[in-house]
Amino acid sequence: MKTKVIGLTGQTGAGKSTVSDFAKKSGCAVINADKIAREVMTAGSDCLKRLAEVFGSDILREDGSLDRKRLAQKAFSSAEHTDLLNDVTHPAILDRTKKEIAAYGNANDVILFDAPQLYESGGESLCDSVIAVTAPLEVRLNRIMKRDSLTDEEALQRIRAQHDEEYYTARADYLIDGSRPLDDVEKQLDNILKAVRREEL
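Below the sequence we write its predicted structure tokens.
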């Protein structure tokens, strides 16, 4: 059977990490875009050198590593700066993802690509299908506040910075309601994996 790559995306706080954990439990290989992003921006990397050219060398610490807080202050100060960040990082992330997919492909029939910015980066082009995880605003807000120790307003700012739910659901092949009890979320994923593997539902 050809290895199937499933993209996993959705708004912050919807429950992507939970779905990703269940995918690992079910035997899928999981590629995490946030983890790859950290790896491609290590000291001395081409990606980090390019970011320093774009945003200034003061985003680097004395040891050459990235000062993430300083980069965030600059990169998220305007939509134009955020676009510059994405223009530099997205190609590097996708290139590394392609290599990981190739490495996993021989041993795994399903690979889950967990990518919050799947569509923005063009990452859906690497996927055979896409799952969008959704949850009501109040659920996501409470999860973000608890997870990241944020105030109500800080959590709302993060939510407002993302696309609305329809942006994700309109493009996805499958939907998972991340606000449901955990056993139900796991069942939703299992049904999708059966469909992807062409097993009987």
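The chain has two domains: 1-28+109-201, 39-107.
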